[in-house]
Amino acid sequence: MIRPKLEFLSRETVDRAIDEAYDLLQDPGVRVHYDEALELLAGAGAKVDKESRVAKIRRSLAEKAVKTAPSSFYLYDLDGQPVVHYGGDDVHFNPGSAAIEIADHGAKESRVPVTADCENFVRLAEMLPQMDAVATSIVCGDVPEVMQDWYRLYLLLLYARKPIDTGTFAIESFAIMHELLVAVAGSAEALAKKPRAVFDVCPSPPLLWSDITCANLIDAARAGVPAELVSMPLMGATGPATIIGSAVQHAAESLSGITIHQLAKPGSPIVWGGSPASFDMRTGATPMGAIATMMLDCTYSQIGKMIKPGGLPTHAYLGMSDAKIVDAQTGLESASGAILGALAGINMMAGPGMMDFESCFSLEKLVIDAEIVGMAKRLVRGVDDIETPFALEVMREVGHADSFMKSKHTRRHFREEDYIPTEVIDRDYRQTWFDKGALDVNARAHRRVEELIEAYEPLPLAEDVVRDLQAIATGHAKAAGLNQLPKLSGR
Q1: Which of 261, 286, 300, 485 can bridge 250 by disulfide, Cβ–Cβ 3.0-4.6 Å?
Q2: Please, what sign has the CA dihedral across residues 110, 115, 119, 125?
Q3: By residue range, what is the domain housing residue 256?
Q4: Tens-digit pLDDT profile for residues 435-448
Q5: How far apart are CA 68 and CA 279, in angstroms?
Q6: Through-space distance between the first and last CA atoms of the chain, rounded to whole angstroms
Q7: What CATH number has the domain bearing residue 144?
Q8: Number of domains the chain contains
Q9: pLDDT in tens, 234-258
Q10: Is 118 inside any structural domain?
Q11: Residue 386 three-state SS
Q12: What is the DSSP track for 271-297?
């Protein structure tokens, strides 16, 4: 069986792009606004100008870091089961993040989300089998800004069984989030052995590392918690205007991040991820639904897969739309990205549910996107040609002008050969559709949202674990000036 696969670059072009990325590490180098990272680089032989904070990293140093970075690893669920495999061409999806607004069903205006929205989101994401992991997708506006990053993770740990894609907004937050994860895992060693979460870490284009991102890289490496690089050049704005040019910049930024990360602790898991975009010169927007954005995602992922024998784990923000409401544009852009990314073999795609330039979340879009994901996953399984003969026996069994519906062959295969969607996707005859209320896809998705949230069953978290999580959250909330956490509906 051949797995359908999409590649945009020849081996020669990939090698040239990698060579240019390594060259950029030496000239002009990378600017690093974190003393400990500069010390790690200088100690390993990089040329560091303390005044300009520019580090020039020789190729051999970066190549050594790439070599020690694992080609694959797993994320685990609450039960300690390996659920998400980062590596090779395995394909997974999780909801996009991090939304500072939420779109209610039928509304054209968005609003600031609150704790109840995050609760409903994680219940829904848990109930969607197409989503392999959950994410800290909702930034709650009913808590102080200083605690918004770790508070999202706190809520997910109370409600989610699946692995988690997350990230911090401040240097201090990693320790809090690690403390929350350890409370569920049982110990720091248990968490490192079976990591539950991956942390997104974003360099600033072009070729700059802030204090927050460097600290997060180093902290994640030393804790043994996977880090996910999210390089994000904007074509023609903060990166070269060409797809291949921005892919080279992405590679250089990622290589510098891997170098810092592996110097902190060789062998710690790290992901070649990103969120680059095209740049619309007419509006100044950064369209995540642009075809060039999707092509750039597939291109940089191909480079990551070929950066060394066995490659590195990959990630991209795909399955998103720039539309403001759930409409035909959301379907067009989200499906295009999910299909292209799946064919490119990107290990984790974060994006379902997100729209409006990666700033707004829709529960209805998440449900529709789940159907897109189901189709994309079926696509990359390819055409099964293992069974032989392919058709001779069943054709001879059925003969002329008879039906295949009563054949054992049909009963054995019909469920697996196609992706069978839920009623979110309309497969009814017109009269049946009218009889069911003549609902459009948005209305059907809203009904599905309500059904799944209602069907969610609380996690069987041990009472002492819940108390530990609540104690950690309450203590840090008080330090942030919040004397009482928002009331939860399910805990």
Answers
A1: 300
A2: positive
A3: 67-381
A4: 999 999 999 999 99
A5: 35
A6: 48
A7: 3.20.20.480
A8: 1
A9: 999 999 999 999 999 999 999 999 9
A10: yes
A11: coil
A12: EB-B--B--BTTTTB--TTSHHHHHHH
